[in-house]
Specification:
The chain is α+β, with helices and mostly antiparallel strands. It contains five helices and three strands. The longest helix has about 70 residues. The mean pLDDT is about 80.
Length: about 200
């Protein structure tokens, strides 16, 4: 009987080793461990979702930046073509070019029985360099035409601004006609008086 009791004790010990007793306290701890495990799994899932979210955001930012850079390059390459088209379409916005006709013009006249003289500096304005070049090339012919126009003026009438404007227009037409006849270009916009003295 002592042997059977020893066998029973050995079997009980092996059973104890095989199946540990489950007291109430550890069961509560195991349920807490299961809750911790569930939280850990949930956190791992949200961490994976967070990584996935960051990957999507990064991809979207990359695509948007790529489109922005591509659009900027497209419009920068198209801009010179547009600027060239605007320049050829609107030559009226060209810069004014001025050419002084030196020396000054001095003309004698007889007004009310007295000798009078007119001294003026004349400047020609155009926007086409070819017109200014023609004015320089044909300056002697232009000066002769302008001296004739100035000599034909009535001294008393030139005292008004309207008469001076009319004189400027006659001189502009004469210069433009001369460069058109001699050089085949036109485009004298204005003749300006930079000084105008009558005595």
């Amino acid at each position: 009987m002592a042997q059977t009791q020893k066998k029973d004790q050995k079997q009980d010990q092996t059973k104890d080793q095989k199946q540990p007793e489950k007291p109430k306290g550890p069961q509560v701890e195991q349920s807490i461990d299961l809750d911790d495990a569930a939280e850990t799994v949930a956190n791992d899932g949200s961490a994976k979702g967070g990584r996935r979210r960051w990957l999507i955001v990064g991809f979207v930012v990359f695509v948007v930046l790529g489109l922005a850079i591509g659009g900027a390059l497209y419009f920068m390459r198209a801009a010179p073509d547009d600027a060239a088209a605007e320049e050829s379409a609107a030559p009226a916005h060209a810069i004014a070019i001025y050419q002084d006709l030196r020396p000054e013009f001095i003309v004698n006249s007889l007004a009310v029985g007295q000798h009078r003289y007119l001294q003026t500096d004349v400047t020609v304005m155009a926007r086409d360099p070819a017109v200014i070049a023609a004015v320089n090339t044909h300056a002697p012919i232009i000066r002769s035409a302008l001296v004739n126009i100035l000599a034909d003026q009535d001294f008393l009438l030139l005292q008004s601004d309207a008469a001076k404007q009319s004189l400027r227009e006659k001189m502009r037409a004469a210069v433009d006609a001369t460069v058109q006849k001699e050089a085949g270009v036109t485009g004298v916009e204005s003749v300006l008086f930079t000084s105008f003295v009558m005595q």
